[in-house]
Fold:
Amino acid sequence: MARTLIVFHSRTGATRRVARALADRLDADLDEIQIVQPLDGRIGYLMCAIEAVTGLAPALAPARKDPANYELIVIGTPVWFWSLASPVRSWLEEHPLRGNRFGFFCTMGGSGASCVFSTMTELTGGKAVATLALTDDEIEAGADAQIDGFARALRTGRRRRSARAPAVARASA
Structure:
């Protein structure tokens, strides 16, 4: 089993594309967040906006992977109306990550990353090892350098924390 889990939601495919590229670099497992009753088209787009802005959390299909089995959890989300995508909010509310190491990434038309990362920090109760925000244009251009840098930051953060864990365990024994 991989030591890293990448959990993400993608409506248009941009976040999925980044998640897959990141999984290749980190040799990570993927788990796509699925809504129980997805809505397509204009009504779906409107519902996404309403849910994101109001902080609603839709019902989700059961997760395929248990985040408790991983050392590092990377959470990916699209930015919806300068807000966290509601399916990711639901997942974070259903899977408390207190005490886990995690990273965040988001995809967006142009802005909203700082608000989304702030909300994710609040919901997880801790600071991410690393974050990555990519616009749709950057993804279309092939954001390899940014994804590589994010993967390095996640690995470095994981090693640094892992190296300290044994010392803490010995001190408390």
